[in-house]
Amino acid sequence: ANRMISALGEGDVMLLENLRFDPREKSKDDTELESFAAELTAGADVYVNDAFGTCHRKHASMYAAAQAVQAKSGPAVAGYLVEKEIKYLHEAVAEPARPFVAILGGAKVSDKIKLISALLGKVDRILIGGAMAYTLLKARGESVGISLVEEDQVEVMKHLLAEAGDKILLPCDHLGATEFTSDQAVAVSDPSIGDDLMGMDIGPKTIEAFSEVISSAGTVIWNGPMGVFERDAYAVGTRAVAQAVAGVTDGGATSVIGGGDSAAAVEQMGLGERMTHVSTGGGASLTYLEGKPMPPIEVLDK
Question: Where do the domains of the chain lie?
Fold first, then answer.
């Protein structure tokens, strides 16, 4: 690689193999990280990080390489994408136009506990759908049938709901199924779900309630789908929420889609262009919104 780099002419670009194939890229040993970073930056004068999707990872190419260039008195800077991601995520959380609405979904509430806690003091409403809603519904005393529930999080959610008061809005009806592989959607018109059903998507009354809250928002952040959107039978809720967010954005609100499945959903539905910003980082977006340290960003020259 070094021979090829030395042969580069003006305007040439060299793309390296995926660095994670080298175990030193993700090493827990600082000496190994620094050694690999020194190899990567041997001929480098400037370090540019434009990989926001891995900015929550303290890997050799993400962190130690920046330090290695700085040690040679070279600049370590953010690329255009990283700059854009930070701009929109920061503005959404630090300077939101009100009402500030967060929409959260996905499978596991345990993945979003820190995010919910971080947002409670900042947002006006949190709308929760997806499989994670069933753990919260059970904590509230509703029957959830055979829906996915993280039993070890039920007590935690009871305390979180008490802390949140009326800020958190949960589904009041559902689309269910007798088993996960079934595409025969069963309408459930109440918050509670029958013993032989599992929740697969939010229902029409929930869509109406969520859409009403979204329609008056000044700022929306969205992370996680409302149901099993990969299957048409259970994509109704996610599609409706995406359309509501696109509609309020058309009216001047700021919308930030937090990467991962929600970003995939809005792009799949052809609505990405109508959002203010669709993040490229799932885990990185969550980390930023939770207020956790992001060493690959913090190491860059200010």
Answer: 2-80, 89-290
- Please check the confidence at residue 259 and state whether its pLDDT lies above 80: no
Mean pLDDT of 176-196: 95
Same fold, 2-80 and 89-290: yes
CATH of the domain spanning 2-80, picked from 3.30.10.20, 3.40.50.10210, 3.90.25.10, 3.40.50.1260:
3.40.50.1260
The token pair at 76 is: 């370590």
Of 67, 52, 158, 75, nearest to 109 by C-alpha is: 158
> What amino acid is encoded at 211 in this protein?
S
1-48 pLDDT, tens digit each: 678 888 888 999 989 899 999 999 999 999 999 999 999 998 899 999
Q: What are phi and psi of 200, to 5 degrees?
A: -125, -20
What is the model's pLDDT at position 280? 86
The closest of 247, 291, 250 to 56, measured between CA atoms, is 291
| CA torsion angle 75 26 283 93 (round to 10) | -30
Average pLDDT in the chain:
94
Fold of 89-290: Rossmann fold (3.40.50)
What percentage of the chain has pLDDT greater than the value 70?
99
Q: Is the dihedral of CA 268, 272, 275, 276 positive or negative?
A: positive
Residue 302, pLDDT score? 76
